[in-house]
Amino acid sequence: MSRFRILFVDDETNVLQGLQRMLRYMRLEWEMRFVDSGEAALEVMKTQAFDAIVSDMRMPGMDGAVLLAEVSRRYPETVRVVLSGFSDAESVMRTVGLAHQFLAKPCSAQLLVDVIRRAFELKRVLSSGRLRALLSGLANLPTPPDTYYALVEYMGRTDASSNGVAEIIARDVAMTAELLKLTNSSYFSLSSRLTQPLQAVRILGFETIGALVLRIGIFRSFKGLPATGRLVEDINRDSFLVARIARRIAKVEGFDARGQEEAYCAGMLSSIGLLVLLDQRSEDVARVKQSVAAGTSALEAEQQVFGATHFQVGAYLLGLWGFNKLVVEAVAFLGRPSVAPAGELDIAGVVHFARVLAGPSPVYAHPQMGAEIGRLPLDRDYINHLGKQNQLERWSAEAAMEAHQ
């Protein structure tokens, strides 16, 4: 098996030497080159293909943002990682949309390796020929509403505020009505009733509101399908249960507020791919359900019928729509996080455990045949890798409390 090729770029010799020492143990898996400028990096890339480039931001002459812009234009398949200091926050903002991952110095070897490995695995999953063939064969794929695109653009600004987000949502009367209807429902268990988008934004946060607007817009495209209308609503309810359990697990495990919000969003959006398949390929979804009833796992049956899992379909669409990279990763690896294990529990792991503990998806559940039919299998390799076996009982208790609220 050929080794992955990684190019490291930093104008400080001691940093490059430190990286070489720190990553020496990866020599059997990676072929690594180290250069001291953006210009030198582009020269090397003319004669040798690289799977990933890891660049500093603040360099004389061609800085990291300019370098990554050129790499993106010339070699779009190369994974692009920023490794830079906190003081470079302003220049790092220039790479939004250019870099796949952002890491701050100092960075441990394990974190750097985990990030690059996961980027490779995500690229492999989302570049699958069978997945592309599946999606190219689907007609009328749902697209996010204009409100969502306006929100994404606005929330990328440094002066974004809750008031500004609320103003964008308020321009779409139907979206406002749907948003307030959803936030006031039992899905969120809020202590008081919301009457304005601004209240929703302040309580739920930017990320969750963006995900909600996306989800509401996509759900609109499924109206008028009476045969699946009730099932779509069941999927909706189930997705919010997964989201709430994910947030509980993240809180128990000490994730910060942003991490808890990202876990919630990934859980909420984890069934987007299943909705698309249900809408576009309902007969094939029925075939999957028959296989599940016969004892095949849902993900294995989806691979057999579609050539991809609904998590991979959802991640592909979320990536296409420019969604948060951590959320895209979490959805892509939700079925089996051990394919790209991190050194510690991450968003993908949290949402995996939440999905397992929430029970079977309504699409594949067969209550009369037992609660395990259609349930996502626990990735034991992953939980053993993390050493979190003793936490499963605590997470189960949290999930039970959430399910009965």
Q: What can you see in these coordinates?
A:
Helices cover 58% and strands 6% of the residues. It has 405 residues and is an alpha/beta fold. Strand 4, helix 4 and strand 5 form a beta-alpha-beta unit. Helix 7 (146-155) runs antiparallel to helix 8 (162-170), helix 12 crosses helix 19 (347-358) and helix 13 (257-269) packs across helix 19. It is globular and about 65 Å long. The model has no long low-confidence stretch (mean pLDDT 84).
| Cα-to-Cα separation, first versus last residue | 51 Å
> What's the pLDDT, averaged over the residues?
84
- Low-pLDDT ranges: none
Strand tally is 5
List the helices and strands and how they pair.
Elements: E1 4-9, H1 13-22, E2 30-35, H2 38-47, E3 52-55, H3 64-74, E4 79-84, H4 89-93, E5 101-104, H5 109-126, H6 129-136, H7 146-155, H8 162-170, H9 173-183, H10 197-204, H11 206-220, H12 226-252, H13 257-269, H14 272-280, H15 282-293, H16 298-306, H17 310-320, H18 325-332, H19 347-358, H20 380-386, H21 392-403
Parallel strand pairs: 1-2, 1-3, 3-4, 4-5
Summarize it:
With 405 residues, the protein is α/β, with parallel strands linked by helices. The protein is 58% helix and 6% strand.
